[in-house]
């Protein structure tokens, strides 16, 4: 995890695990459960997975005892799956903004839009995030991650000081939480994202930050 991204919520039991796996064999088993859960979520949907422990056990080939040693329920498996996805996204988001070409501030907006578009085209993201199949626990983690995204955005805009010298963390948080919800709207009925809605999100974000540019 990059040091720029917040670390308060980044620990092994923040997701859905009951305990930390100590052996490589246990780690491999947990990964098999998570991979199987991801496949099932895409194939049959969230509700089918959380509603039938047998479905996950049968497809993964994991014994009931081994499963419950690390997860209380299938829902906790999806919590862990979501948590790991959040961690991956946090790292990828920072890399996307840091590696953007050029040096114009509007390219920060373009990088945010491109990142969210690519993320939401992933079937797992649509089933869990767009359809709001997240537990309260994961929603809290997700909100903290979005705040981390805002910190990355702020750091990138601060590279354009004095233009954005007065831009604050709160203003970036507002922008990123708005983007999160609007992308859910853009992908509600279109697995590729509604182009008109995405274009409006970009325009809104560009206008929002332009208002703090001092230009």
Automatic annotation (TrEMBL):
User: By its UniProt entry, which Pfam families does this protein fall under?
Assistant: TetR_C_22 (PF17928)
Q: Do you know which InterPro entries this protein is assigned to?
A: Homeodomain-like_sf, HTH_TetR, TetR_C_22
Which residues are in the HTH tetR-type domain? Answer: 27-89
| DNA-binding region coordinates | 52-71
Is rRNA processing one of the keywords UniProt gives this record?
A: no
The UniProt GO MF terms for this protein read: DNA binding
Q: Which UniProt keywords apply?
A: DNA-binding
* Name recorded for this polypeptide: TetR family transcriptional regulator
